[in-house]
Amino acid sequence: MTVFFTLTLSAVLLLLLTVAMALVLGWANQAFHVAVDPLVEAIDRVLPGANCGGCGYVGCNEYAVAVAEGKAALNLCAPGGVSCIEALAELTGQEATPALPYRAVVHCAATRDQRLPQQKPLYLGEPTCAAANLVAGFQGCTYGCLGLGDCVRACEYDAIHSIDGVAVVDYDNCIGCKACAAVCPRNIISMVPFKADRMLVVACSNPDNAAATRAVCPIGCISCSMCAKKSDLMQMENSLPIIDYNAYQDENDFALALEKCPRESLIFVGKPSPSDLEKVADEELPERVEADFQTTVDKTEWWG
Amino acid sequence: MVATSPTAFERFLNGIIPENPVYRQLLGMCPVLAVTGAMKPALTMAAATAFVLICANVLVSLIRSLLKPHLRILVFTMTIATFVTIADRFLAAYLYEMSKELGPYVPLIIANCLIISRCEICASKQSVGVALADGVGMSLGFALALASIASVREILGSGTWFGLTVLPSFWPTWGIMVLPPGAFLVLGLLLGLVEWIGHRRATST
Amino acid sequence: MDNVALLVQIFFGAALINNFVLHYFVGICPFLGVSRRIDMAFGMGCAVTFVISIAALLSWTFTYYILRPEAPLPSWLWRLAGGDPEVQIDLSVLSYIMYIFVIASSVQFVEMYVRRFFPPLYKSFGVFLPLITTNCAILFACLEIMKHLQDPMHLWGLAEALTLAIGGGVGFTLAIVLMAGIREELELCDIPKPLQGAGITLIVAGIMAMAFMGFTGVDQGIQNFLNAMIE
């Protein structure tokens, strides 16, 4: 009798509970239904879904909401590219204004050897820029690239590498997500609108005076202001030249400034121009020499 | 998809070492830390978990065609809760002292992510035979992990193994090993050791 | 006043001395998984505290009225059915299933409610809710409450149950935020490769557990202080 009663009671209780919860949750699902704007959903589907944060919103969904409400421009999504902007324009019925592709630029071009260590590098800490930036004496220049590759690790697109101790962007892969710029502890990576395949950039971040800069770097900017005098599109700010990319039209505008620069602080980055390619078109690439013997000493690979 | 799913034997072998639930997947940490002060409770715990895991895997695999995607986790948990109740009552009836010692950790098997993850990954997608083999393999892997941690802690902490004295009497017992901090330290170091051995084997071959 | 002293003892017992994570090892999964950044750890801690309180409320209600030995509802039904009043009806075998079911459903309900009426709150900690529905820490609080409702002579009231739950939640938040702070600093350290990730986190947790052992006796001290205040 007791067993029978307990069993029945258990079954009835569980059944009642199940029915009650099913009703409550079913009702809640109706009553608390959050109406998601179909436009937001459609925009969300168009966006790449990388959640890179390059647009300035927390994720693709946030950006989709902002676009749907008309609060955000259509051209903020760098990974989506032109096709994404066109799709967004079609969905929202707004005019499509293709954004110039913003690409990462490293404002330092000095290799590790050029950055003149003040003494033999004593830094034995964790090999990350974030850690090395905390201590003095890692290298001579206290503004330049540390070359330990925090940006390399931050890049999800294999578009930035540490070459000879300086970060170099691979513009074939860069999508302009700003991840490297955000992680650089010295803030020497900025986003530049690429109006042409290659752009002129200031490859130095050292605001010190000429003597101090010379002491730590053979190529860094010595604040001579020569470029600013020769080009209207450049001006000195904080002892460094700033290029006005809004007015940047053609790289030839800078020919004179480039010629007068006594250092190597102004460089072109990006893809080589057609004329550059023409110049080297006739040159034959030297064949790679491969070692034709195998050493028995170790497994070192021999490259010519 | 079906063609590439692991077979029963692969599932069985995977569970023991290559995908060991504790050392490789970091699942079911709560009992791993809590009941490994000595070998006996650790193995009782492993047996209880094995019973629940195997039964839940088989049952979920049998009803897998009836599962609705948004309700499946709830169904898994209810299934597990049922078997845990059975295991708990069994222990209380036949191994009362052990049941006392394990305390709340037997019912906490319900919240052991190992079982839910096996239901989700294997049982809800593959046939009963595979699910059974997977359950047995994973249970053995779990038991192995619990036994290894419990051995270290019991031998260093009380100088005994399965209650038998193994260390000479002049050896000072490390009291910290049977206390909560010891559980964390031993598991952390053993995890590092397993990683290190795995890395060395990977590089040497 | 005895009651307040008991509550204080339960709260500090759950939050510091017998910290859920560092003494009872419950809630290890989120403790290892969501302790990379302080803000996320804090969100997780708040979510756990919140869910644990709901779970305590529900499990106390169910256990007290239905599931414990000599619970009013089954006894009443038993007598209604004409059973022998000497015989006890014990439904505690149902407790685990009931807890899981009730907690999972109510968390689902709360999630929908918060999502509808408090979108900012949902954004900051709602995402953690589904992750912890049937987390060990929450089930553990229910089991502790159940344990204290077994002996009809010393029954816990709702206040004690809630104090235990909130104390446990606060303790969990404290542990996970401390761990996140340490892990943010660990990012800059040179950790041997095999120990990176879970290994070093567990070792740090071990050291934290040792530190928390130092809280033993704090509840007694506070009780003495309270008693001295009354006198």
Identify low-pLDDT runs of chain C.
none
Helix content of chain C: 55-70%
Measured distance between first and last alpha carbons of chain C: 11 Å
What is the oligomer described by this structure?
Answer: heterotrimer
Tell me about the biggest sheet of chain A?
2 strands, antiparallel
Q: Secondary-structure element sequence of chain C?
A: HHHHHHHHHH
β-strand percent of chain C reads under 5%
Total beta strand runs of chain C: 0
- Tell me, briefly, the overall form of chain A: elongated
What does the average pLDDT of chain A come to? Answer: 76
Radius of gyration of chain A: 29 Å
Biggest β-sheet: strands ordered side by side in the sheet of chain A: 1-4
Residue share in β-strands of chain A: 5-15%
Give the radius of gyration of chain C. 20 Å
Biggest interface in this structure? B-C, 38 and 40 residues
> Helix share of residues of chain A?
25-40%
Total beta-strand segments of chain A? 8
Order of helices and strands of chain A: HHHHEHHEEHEEHHEEHEH
Structural class of chain A: alpha+beta
Concise account of the structure shown:
The complex is a heterotrimer of chains A (304), B (205) and C (231). Chain A has 304 residues and is an alpha+beta fold.
Keywords:
heterotrimer; A: 304 residues; alpha+beta; 3-methyladenine DNA Glycosylase II, Chain A, domain 3; two-stranded antiparallel ribbon; 11 helices; disordered C terminus; B: 205 residues; mainly alpha; 8 helices; 66% helix
Structure report:
The complex is a heterotrimer of chains A (304), B (205) and C (231). With 304 residues, chain A is an alpha+beta fold. Chain A is elongated, with a radius of gyration of 29 Å. Chain B has a domain of 141 residues. The longest helix of chain B has 31 residues. The radius of gyration of chain B is 18 Å and the shape is globular. The model of chain B has no long low-confidence stretch (mean pLDDT 86). Chain C is 70% helix and 0% strand.
